[in-house]
Write a structure and sequence with these properties.
Blueprint: H1 2-18, H2 20-25, H3 27-30, E1 35-44, E2 47-56, E3 66-75, E4 81-87, E5 91-95, E6 99-102, E7 105-113, E8 118-125, E9 134-140, E10 145-148, H4 156-172, E11 184-185
Antiparallel strand pairs: 1-2, 2-3, 3-4, 5-6, 7-8, 7-11, 8-9, 9-10
């Protein structure tokens, strides 16, 4: 009987710690953080491109805690049917309230004309000032990525090589240059104008 009581007391005392590891691995589970999704759209060569960014409701423009960002390509000739959806895979930041979050945002975009078709250019940024903290990617309007300035290796040489390859690709597509005046900011926060 004494062993049963001691075992019961031990289980009772250790019960609060049993879920601690699960909560540590998934902080969003214990959190009641409100998430909101901002939606923005851009017309590009007969395709409607839709950006959806999900962030905590208390996010400020200077500090965004966002958990998901997708870009959808919708064929307007087929009634808005989704051709392709790409997900921002730049997860890695951590917020104790929501778990993993996006640490590089797609924050600006432009529709540019090449020699025979339109292309979507996405600009990514981490918010830092390091080499490789910002890069562009070019997509066909069916959602296929054709070029990226992002380098897996953050050495200056690797970054320069990625930039040069990107420039060769956009010249081959008939895009003379990417003037920053073409780029529009993507609405990341719901209340952002």
């Amino acid at each position: 009987m004494k062993k049963v009581v001691i075992t019961f007391l031990l289980l009772f005392c250790l019960a609060p710690f049993a879920n601690a590891e699960e909560k540590k691995s998934n902080p969003a589970k214990e959190s009641s953080v409100e998430l909101i999704t901002a939606v923005d759209e851009l017309e590009c060569g007969g395709t409607k491109v839709v950006a959806e960014t999900t962030c905590t409701a208390d996010s400020k423009p200077t500090f965004k805690t966002c958990t998901k960002q997708t870009i959808s390509f919708k064929d307007m000739k087929k009634g808005g049917e989704i051709i392709k959806k790409i997900h921002n895979e730049n997860l890695g930041g951590a917020d104790e309230r929501v778990g993993k979050n996006i640490d590089a945002f797609i924050w600006r975009w432009a529709c540019v004309r090449g020699k025979d078709r339109s292309y979507l250019v996405l600009e990514f940024a981490t918010g830092g000032s390091c080499a490789g903290c910002e890069w562009d990617e070019i997509y066909q309007i069916d959602g296929k990525k054709v070029a990226s300035k992002k380098s897996k290796n953050r050495t200056q040489e690797a970054i320069q090589e990625a930039v040069e390859k990107f420039q060769r690709t956009y010249r081959a597509l008939g895009i003379e240059k990417l003037p920053r005046s073409l780029f529009q900011r993507i609405k990341i926060l719901k209340n952002q104008e």
